[in-house]
Design goal:
The protein is an all-alpha fold and about 600 residues long. Helices cover about 65% and strands about 0% of the residues. The longest helix has about 50 residues, at about 150-200.
């Protein structure tokens, strides 16, 4: 069977499994819809958390970023891994004991303010829409190549699938679907990595293969890649181009943004008690580590194979996968010197924007060149590099580049879809609960029935998936980049409010609201100015105007500092929190022996 048949088969089977689980575990109450009834087993919750966590950015784009950017791309690996540890160990147990299953609920009650709750709802929706755009983009990339449909149609197919099981099953359906999705995505990630590790190093363990000598000599794989890239005019793979302050800022923004992501925090409420939340956090970290420790090896394997594939080759000599990925708009070659040979060197960017991301004209022109290659518009003339590769294809194309069996290629397609859909479902749930529960039920009309609240949540999820699909079709960057914006916004808005709400008694509602608004507006304005221009006009910032050399992906770190500073300053000059709030903070922080395993928040849901 060829690649297309294997892809249809494996993707079809996996989708049937997800839909079947959603029907079996459909939500019948708001408790089922929001927190899966609160009785998910620890190991299952750990797998669901890992699937929720490992989005399209982790599966599709992280290794691609590392592959194309070398050391600079490792910020995603360090930031996301460190962020989960920070969330699991520092924040989650306290939030679980507080007894609130959404971040806006926690902020609204801790800061005794409906205004704080509404601000948190706005922040949650803003962050989730930014994040979900990356997931929908990942779905479109997979479908566009393996099912040979346009990216736009691929996004729409993904929208329909995720809407079905997210709206029908709620958190209960999503949880058990994500258990299946984790199994699919981790198998899909490890199988090709093991195959390629054996081919390149003779070692079946990718993590060890990364440290081994290449099969064709005595050099280590990283050392060999460094030498090859240096000879071509690129920076050494293990070196970076970004200023260290920007590397630090992006890593920090990803880390603390992770700890403030609402769709991950809610996972700690789907188990029975606080101790189960801690144990499921351990299982999730173990499951996450299986992919994250493999990603650097996949990145180096892919870059090495790509260089071997295109070295001194003509377009006619390129394998079938090259022209097929051209059709998806994610790779291109332009014969600038007319010699018919693909030149891949460090004289210019190896990454070009996809047409949907171009801010002036589409990158790809109509028609083909003399050798059949894709033609580009607005082609930079100041470089001789002729090959253009989007980092989002590295993991997906890796099995084809390495000439692995067709069933492995189809498996990777199913894994990429599982990663994107699992996180998209979790984000949709956050958006729907933020609107139906936190805004409508807790703020606007406390008297609405559970049935009405559940209906509102499902309607909101439907509207949200349509909006998310639009941003998936027209995203502002490649998948990991788009997701980095979401983490920066979470870092600047939620993280300070959560940390101060747990570990200080003096911060009041005025400080919390002022801090969140300041952090969110500053970070969003910086990202919009440098990525979209002012109000989407031609007035747009350039990298040489970055504050202290910090890019939009890392500006959430500065927004977080502003949030902390404003919240503490405003709280100092305004009335302190009432005694019942300070008592609540004290009880949440006491050892669990003082209160047993029960949640200690002001109310339960």
């Amino acid at each position: 069977m060829d690649v297309r048949i294997w892809t249809y088969l494996l993707v079809g089977l996996s989708f049937s499994l997800y839909i079947g689980i959603a029907i079996w575990s459909r939500a019948g109450s708001t408790k089922d819809f929001y927190i899966a009834g609160g009785g998910v087993p620890k190991v299952a919750n750990g797998m669901a958390t890992a699937a929720d966590w490992m989005s399209a950015a982790s599966f599709i784009s992280m290794a691609g970023a590392i592959s194309m950017m070398g050391r600079d791309g490792a910020v995603y690996l360090m930031g996301w891994t460190g962020g989960y540890v920070l969330l699991a160990l520092l924040l989650a147990p306290y939030l679980r004991r507080f007894g609130k299953f959404t971040v806006p609920d926690f902020i609204g009650d801790r800061y005794y303010s409906s205004t704080a709750r509404v601000v948190a709802v706005v922040c949650a929706i803003f962050v989730c829409f930014t994040y979900i755009a990356g997931q929908m983009r990942g779905v479109g990339v997979v479908f566009s190549r393996f099912l040979e449909v346009p990216i736009e149609q691929g996004v729409i197919i993904g929208m329909v699938i995720v809407l079905f099981y997210a709206v029908l099953g709620g958190m209960k359906g999503i949880t058990y679907t994500q258990v299946a999705q984790y199994c699919v995505l981790i198998f899909a990630y490890l199988v090709p990595a093991i195959f390629i590790s054996i081919m390149l190093t003779g070692n079946p363990v990718p993590q060890l293969g990364l440290l081994s000598d290449a099969t064709d000599g005595n050099l280590g794989l990283v050392e060999k890649l460094d030498g090859t890239l240096t000879d071509l005019g690129f920076n050494a793979y293990s070196a970076g181009q970004q200023p260290m302050i920007n590397v630090f800022a992006i890593t920090l923004a990803l880390m603390v943004g992770t700890a403030g992501l609402p769709h991950v925090i809610v996972r700690f409420y789907t188990v029975r008690k606080v101790s189960d939340a801690r144990k499921s956090a351990f299982w999730a970290l173990l499951f996450i580590g299986a992919l994250y420790t493999t990603a650097p090896a996949v990145a180096i394997f892919a870059r090495s194979n790509l260089l071997d594939t295109v070295a001194d080759k003509t377009y006619a000599e390129m394998p079938a996968w090259f022209t097929q990925w051209e059709d998806s708009g994610l790779i291109a070659w332009v014969d600038k010197d007319g010699d018919g040979i693909i030149r891949y060197d460090g004289s210019g960017p190896a990454i070009e924007r996809h047409p949907s991301r171009s801010q002036i004209d589409p990158v790809f022109a109509d028609g083909r060149g003399e050798h059949g290659e894709r033609l580009l518009r607005n082609e930079p003339s100041a470089n001789t590099n002729e090959l253009y590769v989007d980092p989002d294809i590295i993991v997906l194309a890796n099995p084809e580049i390495a000439q692995l069996p067709a069933w492995v290629i189809g498996l990777v397609a199913a894994g990429g879809l599982a990663a994107a859909l699992s996180t998209a479902a979790g984000l949709l749930l956050v958006i729907s609960t933020s609107f139906a529960h936190d805004l409508c039920k807790r703020t606007l009309n406390p008297n609405i029935t559970d049935r009405t609240e559940l209906l509102l949540a499902r309607i909101t999820a439907g509207v949200a998936v349509v909006i998310a699909g639009y941003f998936g079709i027209k995203p502002p960057g490649f998948v990991a980049e788009v997701v980095a914006f979401a983490f920066g916004l979470a870092a600047a808005s939620f993280f300070p409010a959560i940390v101060l709400g747990i570990f200080t008694k003096s911060v009041n509602r005025y400080g919390a609201v002022a801090g969140m608004v300041t952090g969110l507006l500053f970070t969003a304005a910086y990202i919009i100015y440098f990525k979209f221009g002012i109000l989407f006009t031609d007035i747009q910032g350039t990298p040489d105007q970055y504050w202290f050399g910090i890019s939009p992906e890392g500006i959430g770190s500065v927004g977080m500092i502003l949030n902390f500073a404003v919240a503490l300053t405003v709280s100092r000059f305004t009335p302190p929190p009432p005694p019942e709030i300070t008592d609540l903070v004290e009880r949440v922080r006491l050892p669990r022996a003082a209160f047993g395993e029960a949640d200690v928040g002001p109310s339960h849901h």
